[in-house]
Design brief:
The chain is an alpha/beta fold. Helix content is 31%, strand content 27%. The two termini are 14 Å apart.
């Protein structure tokens, strides 16, 4: 059974691209959301193994959402994405002293998504 992924980004065309990349890495997209509220609700409803979350969402902070989802009882893996590569230089706090990985959107096609998102490793 493939690892399931939720994609949260307000740009519909980017979500489509991200979904294709996720699937190309042998993972399954179980849902998409356009803002933080939809993302939080979808995560609780769908219980994905992992989530790909944009830093800037129209109704909230993607980093806060990433931390919230990473702390859910089933501990989904979370990767934060942004078109602003400056976030790569910042250690993004996760639950229990962990760090949430960051990938610049331009680097997403070349990133090791399977290693970043595979919750079974």
């Amino acid at each position: 059974m493939p690892v399931t992924v939720l994609i949260v980004d307000d740009d519909v065309s980017f979500r489509s691209l991200a979904a294709r990349l996720v699937r190309a890495n042998g993972l399954a997209v179980v849902g998409e959301a356009g803002d933080a509220a939809e993302g939080a609700a979808a995560a609780r409803r769908l219980r994905p193994d992992a989530a790909l979350i944009d830093v800037r969402l129209p109704d909230g902070d993607g980093i806060a959402l990433a931390s919230e989802l990473a702390a859910l009882p089933w501990s989904p893996r979370v990767v934060v994405i942004s078109s602003n590569a400056q976030f790569a230089r910042v250690a993004l706090p996760g639950p229990n002293g962990t760090h949430i990985p960051f990938v610049a959107k331009d680097d997403l096609p070349h990133s090791p998504l399977r290693q970043l998102l595979d919750a079974r490793t």
